[in-house]
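Q: Could you write out the predicted structure for this multi-component system? I'm mainly interested in how the pieces pack against one another.
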Amino acid sequence: MDIKDGRTVKGTNFINLRDAGDPVELGALYAREGADELVFLDITATVEKRKTLSELVNKIAHHVNIPFTVGGGISSVDDVSVLLQNGADKISVNTSAFKRPQLINDLSKEFGSQCVVLAIDTKKEEDEEWYVYLNGGRTKTEKKCFEWATEAVDRGAGEILLTSMNHDGTKNGFAIEITKLLSEQLPVPVIASGGAGSLDHFVEVFEEASADAALAASIFHFKEIAIPDLKKYLFSRQIPVRM
Amino acid sequence: MNIAIIKYNAGNIRSVLYALERIGHTAIVTDDAAKIRNADKVIFPGVGEASTAMNYLKEINLDQLICSLEQPVLGICLGMQLMCQYSEENDTSCLGIFDEKVRRFSPPLRVIASGAKQGRGLGGETKVPQIGWNNIYDLETGLFNNIPNNSYCYFVHGYYAAKGEHTIATTDYVQPYSSALHKDNFYGVQFHPEKSAGTGEQILKNFIGL
């Protein structure tokens, strides 16, 4: 769930936000429906943000009975400490970790790799290479996705949340190529994100890209695919899922 | 019902409190010996490192108190491991309630870049710590009333208790190990019932009903 000013929003190709509801209610609903884990990314950019995020995390922890990850603007050990104390199970870092990679070392040393998720927004350019983007996809870097993911894992990231900007919001399927590269080469779980539009897209990302987990937002928010139907389908295709 | 959650220097204690609230119970989070002793049920939660936690428990004299409790006690994750005899995690001598040793998972070396990644089934796991959902089976005692065999629970741990005489639930990761232990009034679960959806809530209800 992308959160802005306390509400769930989801855009297409990282722009054009639509309101998709109250994150706490939505989170509790998804947990009841059988989601295995929730991710909340705060994209609010105000000074008030830090306090409202910890309050939101606390509310989520009260109402959600499955593990959840929180991200968005986290840039210090203190930020993480507050979020974990309020009930988050994992935190995700993105731009701040890219700008100061030592943050990943500091967080994994202080709280353990199991709660440090590195989120990467990546885009395939005309030269056929996947580059890292920052600031919610607005800023291009010259760093290649695989290089950055490898460095982050060496520094202590315990999980990679990989979003393909070429696929996000398109509903044409996940980015098989880059997901496969990361999930088969890195010794940590890789969560594929961006592009889910049909039940078969999930089968594809598990079978062809060896993803450890798949993340989707808009198809669930706008009730195009129901989580119980998705899990039944995956189960019927012999993909190990919690039923 | 008077439930005490033991407060010490471990993480994730509030998640247990919130989980109890969701199933209609209030609890106190305390390190006060009298309050813990007088509670009907005691929960000993925790995410963290064994030696740091044990040193702290000794410092505030909770180590002996926990061992002497007579009401039902539920250790969760690190709490369960601390109730064992010994943990390999920084060579730590623990409370000794369960006569078990806690060891680090030592999976066979993973072949990187070999093509298909190994699955999460028995023998295929190579990532330590184990983070995620896994099955519990061979369930014994009232703690698992109404819990079907092979139900999924959420785990986060790098060390495990081997199977032994106190095992009341088994999980497979690298090898079969104890995902729950029981002796007299003491229960321990390696997984996090507070994060294990409906299954976890039923287990917490069962514990409160003991």
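A: Regarding packing and overall arrangement: Chain B touches chain A at residues 11-12, 14-15, 18-19, 21-22, 47, 110, 112-113, 115-117, 119-121, 126-127, 129, 131-133, 152, 154, 156, 192, 194-198, 200-201 (CB under 8 Å).
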